Amino acid sequence: MNTNINNAKNEAISTSNNYTDKKYQQGISYTNEKYEQSIQYAQNAADKAEQNANNYTDNRFSQLSNQSNQRFEQLNSKIERAEKRLNAGIAGVTAISSIPYVAENSFSYGIGVGNYQNGNAIAAGIQYKTSLNTNVRLNVSWDSAHNTVLGAGFAGGW
């Protein structure tokens, strides 16, 4: 009878140990699974946050770059317009200075043209000899930038 009790006791202990080991392994498996899920969730959340931050930063820098490019294009356009006007203005004064006059006559007129880089102009002028020693001159030029230059002068000599 003692043997039966010992066998029953050993079987109960063995069954109990097996049950406990099985539940322990199930607990470890469950804990490991939940741990891996938590790690994966945290990693996904961190990746998503990083992606959102990168997208935001990229978007803001893209906006800044576009704004800067627009401003530089506007500035470049203004510089090019100013350059055209300046070149045309230089062509205008070149045209005025190129007008030939007849010094011996009491009244003379002339026409001149000028070019400087991408600017062109035409000019006309008159000169009137008010006396033997004095002259009056009036000039006007029109250039390719639609500028008009007007000049007048008086000269005296002896």
Give the low-confidence spans.
none
**CATH fold naming:** Pantoate--beta-alanine Ligase, Chain: A,domain 2
Euclidean distance between termini CA atoms: 160 Å
Mean pLDDT, as a whole number?
94
Number of helices: 1
Number of domain modules: 1
Report on the biggest sheet: 4 strands, antiparallel
What topology, given as strand order, has the largest sheet? Answer: 1-2-3-4
Structural class: alpha+beta
Beta-strand residue fraction: 25-35%
CATH superfamily: GSPII I/J protein-like
Shape category: rod-shaped
Subunit arrangement of the protein: single chain
Subcellular location: Cell outer membrane; Cell surface
GO cellular component, one term: cell surface
Organism: Salmonella enterica (Salmonella choleraesuis)
Protein name: Trimeric autotransporter adhesin YadA-like C-terminal membrane anchor domain-containing protein
Question: Could you name the key traits of this structure?
Answer:
158 residues; alpha+beta; Pantoate--beta-alanine Ligase, Chain: A,domain 2; four-stranded antiparallel beta sheet; 1 helix; 4 strands; rod-shaped
Please describe what this structure looks like.
The chain has 1 helix and 4 strands. It is of the alpha+beta class and 158 residues long. The protein has a single domain (1-158), classed as 2-Layer Sandwich (Pantoate--beta-alanine Ligase, Chain: A,domain 2), CATH 3.30.1300. It has a 4-stranded antiparallel beta sheet with strand order 1-2-3-4, with helices on one face. It starts with a helix and ends with a strand. The relative contact order is 0.08. The model has no long low-confidence stretch (mean pLDDT 94). It is found in: Cell outer membrane; Cell surface. Keywords: Cell outer membrane, Coiled coil, Membrane, Signal, Transmembrane, Transmembrane beta strand. It holds the Pfam family YadA_anchor. Residues 32-85 form a coiled coil.
